[in-house]
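TA notes, week 10

Several of you asked for a full example with nothing omitted. So below is the full record: structure tokens for the whole chain, then the designed sequence directly under it. When grading your own attempts, check the secondary structure regions first.
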């Protein structure tokens, strides 16, 4: 009976370990960099396959003509020598074009991308017509795929392109290796990050400290930001250029949902709200056990690094994938500070210990004197015991 019970315990532990491994598997991802025909970088795309099989498409662009633009997944993973190399829309089921076409849509059809008067724009869409993982709808078939931005609005009806005009930017989609291997960095005891706006203005900084219990303390000081509450998160790539889309999605190596109040979450990169006062200044001092500065699955210093993003709106801490926190208004690449075990700053051992036993009295002399006193005390105690025995 005892053997059976032990076997059941082993099986339960193995099942638990297997479940933990399954949960820790990072979701399939793809990313790409938009370039114009002249080779100028004008944005980024990140695609993430969610646990339910749908794919989230996140785009951030700059320096594009204001207005609405058609954007589609194209059939070939190439943008050279011209954007025509990307082929037609990705359409393995041979449907007609348009999200509003009764005979459509193409698998690669997406809603329109809106670019503001500043030339910048962000875009998020969910599609169930493609996958990143292998399968009949994968974007990583034999010749890959690309994402193309067009000059005009897509009417979502007219076959084959919705009258969306010329191709003005193109990004070859590349698979993101998962899980990312650890970076060749020693364990870090601290890290720093500098927040900048999309025009390069410095608007704050962050300090990260690895605590003895493995948790990480994050201290943020911000200035020149819109008053109110703002979502702030660790993001998966250590890049902020050419647009903040380069930072990818939230740091989420465990493949969970977003939100500190989400029963299916949180992402490892989720953090409390940053509050900015009427003077544009804000501060956040928080501790998280969801990330580490040391090597490991939750390390911010994995192969492609990490960034911290401040968003335009409050994070509701529940809604997947980003808590409805809106556009990215500031970005900071997390950079290594001090290797663990190094002695710097206030924790550094001084070259010579201070003299606390009196002027000119060195520590070695104090130690020798203490040892002499202890020896003398021991001899005195031994003599007293002998005297007591002889007198009795």
């Amino acid at each position: 009976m005892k053997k059976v019970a032990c076997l059941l315990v082993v099986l339960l532990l193995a099942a638990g370990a297997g479940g933990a491994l399954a949960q820790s598997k990072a979701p399939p991802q793809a990313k790409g960099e938009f370039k114009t025909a002249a080779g100028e970088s004008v944005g980024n795309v990140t695609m993430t396959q969610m646990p339910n099989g749908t794919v989230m498409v996140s785009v951030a662009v700059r320096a594009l003509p204001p207005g609405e633009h058609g954007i589609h997944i194209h059939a070939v993973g190439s943008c050279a020598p011209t954007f025509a190399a990307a082929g037609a829309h990705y359409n393995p089921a041979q449907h007609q074009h348009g999200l509003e076409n009764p005979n459509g849509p193409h698998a690669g059809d997406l809603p329109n991308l809106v670019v503001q008067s500043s030339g910048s724009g962000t875009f998020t869409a969910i599609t169930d017509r493609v996958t990143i993982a292998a399968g009949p709808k994968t974007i990583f078939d034999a010749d890959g795929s690309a994402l193309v931005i067009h000059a005009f609005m897509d009417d979502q009806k007219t076959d084959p392109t919705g009258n969306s005009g010329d191709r003005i930017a193109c990004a070859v989609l590349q698979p993101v290796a998962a899980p990312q291997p650890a970076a060749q960095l020693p364990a870090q005891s601290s890290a720093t990050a500098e927040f900048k706006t999309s025009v390069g203005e410095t608007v704050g900084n962050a300090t990260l400290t690895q605590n003895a219990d493995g948790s990480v303390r994050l201290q943020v000081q911000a200035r020149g930001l819109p008053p109110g509450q703002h979502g702030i998160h660790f993001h998966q790539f250590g890049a902020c250029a050419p647009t903040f889309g380069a930072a990818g999605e939230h740091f989420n190596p465990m493949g969970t949902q977003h939100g500190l109040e989400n029963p299916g979450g949180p992402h490892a990169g989720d953090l409390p709200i940053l509050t900015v006062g009427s003077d544009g200044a804000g501060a956040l001092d928080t501790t998280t056990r969801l990330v580490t500065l040391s090597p490991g699955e939750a390390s911010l210093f994995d192969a492609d690094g990490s960034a911290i993003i401040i968003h335009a709106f409050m994070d509701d801490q529940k809604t997947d994938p980003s808590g409805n926190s809106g556009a990215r208004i500031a970005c900071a690449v997390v950079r290594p500070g001090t290797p663990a075990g190094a002695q710097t700053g206030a924790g550094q051992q001084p070259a010579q210990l201070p003299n606390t036993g009196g002027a000119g009295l060195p520590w070695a002399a104090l130690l020798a004197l203490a040892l002499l006193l202890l020896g003398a005390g021991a001899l005195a105690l031994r003599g007293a015991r002998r005297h007591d025995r002889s007198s009795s």
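Residues 1-24, 344-369 have pLDDT under 50 and may be disordered. Use that as a sanity check on your answer.
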